[in-house]
Amino acid sequence: MSVEFYERIWMWAAVVLLVLFVGTILITATGQAVHPPSHMETIDPGALADSPEFSNPAVTVHSDGTVVVSVVAQMFSFSPNPIEVPANRPVTFRLTSADVDHGFEIVGTNANAMVLPGYVSQFTMTFTKPGKYTIGCNEYCGLLHHNMTGTLVVKEQESPR
Ligand code: CUA
Fold first, then answer.
1. Which ligand 1 atom minimizes the distance to the CA of 145?
2. Is the dihedral of CA 56, 57, 61, 63 positive or negative?
3. pLDDT digit string (tens) for 123-137?
4. How remote is the CA of residue 147 from the centroid of ligand 1, in Å?
5. Measured from the CA of 75, which atom of ligand 1 is nearest?
6. How distant, in Å, are the alpha carbons of 7, 10, 14, 91, 139 from that of 2?
7. pLDDT of 34-76, one tens digit each?
8. Ligand 1 atom index nearest CA of 139
9. Ligand 1 centroid vs 137 CA: distance in angstroms?
10. pLDDT tens across 2-40, in order?
11. Whose alpha carbon is nearest atom 1 of ligand 1?
12. What's the CA gap between 133 and 113, in Å, rounded?
């Protein structure tokens, strides 16, 4: 079978584009922490009150310096609010919903997760810029969806230990 010269050029151009696109996905996914939610931990949304972690969602600083934030999303607020975390330290967010699907987007960062009843969404991120950030729900969850916001306060670290 003979393939025209120009046909061959376009075939190779298509292959190059494919490699470029897949490469872009791989590089951003591994290098820049752009990734789909993958944490498949389940939880009974009706029994959050009995959960040691989510009955009293809070920011926990462990002795090794890691920070874990447990968050419950519920029509139409996030708990705790505000969320205070230190700057320049990995902060792991663990999110779940007590009712319907919500979103958890920290405006101005690439933190953006779905919060689903029955699941714990988890991601870790380091905030380098101290300040106040708005947290928004970006899944339509009811009449007051547009009012469902929270505040993240990133605090400058006190003198290094
Ligand atoms: Cu919660 Cu929209």
1. 2
2. positive
3. 999 999 999 999 999
4. 8
5. 1
6. 10, 15, 19, 58, 53
7. 655 566 788 999 999 999 999 999 999 988 888 999 999 999 9
8. 2
9. 4
10. 889 999 999 999 999 999 999 998 888 787 766 555 667
11. 102
12. 16
Distance between CA atoms of residues 87 and 153, nearest Å = 9
pLDDT at 161 over 90: no
Question: In terms of Cα–Cα distance, which of 106, 40, 34 is closest to 71?
Answer: 106
The answer to whether 108 and 91 are in contact (CB under 8 A) is no
What is the average pLDDT across 78-90? 94
Per-chain mean pLDDT for the chain? 90
Q: How far is the CA of 80 from the centre of ligand 1 (A)?
A: 15
Cα dihedral 160, 59, 125, 108 in deg (nearest 10)? -100
Distance 77 CA to ligand 1 centre (A): 8
C-alpha 138 – ligand 1 centre gap (Å): 6
Ligand 1 environment, Cβ below 6 A: 76, 102, 137, 139-141, 145, 148
| Residue 151, token pair as written in the block | 């505040």
